[in-house]
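BUG-241 | component: ligand-complex export | severity: low

The export step for 2'-O-acetyl adenosine-5-diphosphoribose jobs runs without errors, but we want the raw record kept on the ticket for reference. Input record follows.
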Amino acid sequence: MKQPAIGADTFVLVLTGAGVSAESGIPTFRGSGGLWNDHRFEELASPEGFARDPALVWRFYSWRRSVAAGCAPNPGHAALAALEQRLGDHFLLATQNVDGLHRAAGNTRVLELHGNLFTSRCSRCDRPPFEDRALHEARAPACDRCGGLLRPHIVWFGEALDPSHFEAIEAFLERARAHPLVFLAAGTSGVVYPAAGLVDVARRFGAETWLVNADPPDNAHRFQHFVQGRSGEVLPALLAP
Ligand code: OAD
């Protein structure tokens, strides 16, 4: 298999999506078996949906918590953890996944662009987000500081991403100037922005761009190299030293 040239001097920015966790047993959002085929995301993953029926939203996220709690990283996650081991601070992983499997695999330089499934925050007061692995299946839980409703620490449709994540990506790309730079996206359909636009940002910084995906996604033409296949099989081969 043709591989990106990754030497000790190379910087690698990785973007992952739901496909990378599919082989661990976590459903994707789109494509066959995708969550958004059977569920209306406006009801389950938007501030308006939460205002209308917080208990329904919590049932959905409690179910997702219970699924993710029973899953383990797969060889695709392991290949990315091994790459970080090799490259140290020449490596940065931006993930749209909220399941925590990249950290479980050993990655530490991780930006969770869409939040974390096992973190909650108050929808009313400024209590900092906190770890919460509980299942709230009967009703939406209340904040023990102010009595407001707790909500999952997830970026919902219509909400802004944490600007510090984009600042960290920009700072990484700035540091990569005058070095070889590789941008690798894996397991993402390329329809949800701003993550889907990262490939263009990386190209402006001179990155060689690679995409690993089971099906050709919407933005495949924007990558220089496309490897079709399951990330748990392709990533270990693609990233083998
Ligand atoms: P999607 O579900 O939109 O896309 C997953 C992609 O992974 C599809 O293109 C599949 O073909 C591909 N795929 C499936 N199995 C794979 C495998 N084993 N190996 C490689 N590729 C595989 O997931 P995302 O692009 O991550 O946001 O979706 C983006 C965002 O939309 C999510 O973060 C979520 C969702 O609404 C929020 O919930 C905030």
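Assignee comment: Attached the raw record above. Residues 54-69 form the longest helix (16 residues).
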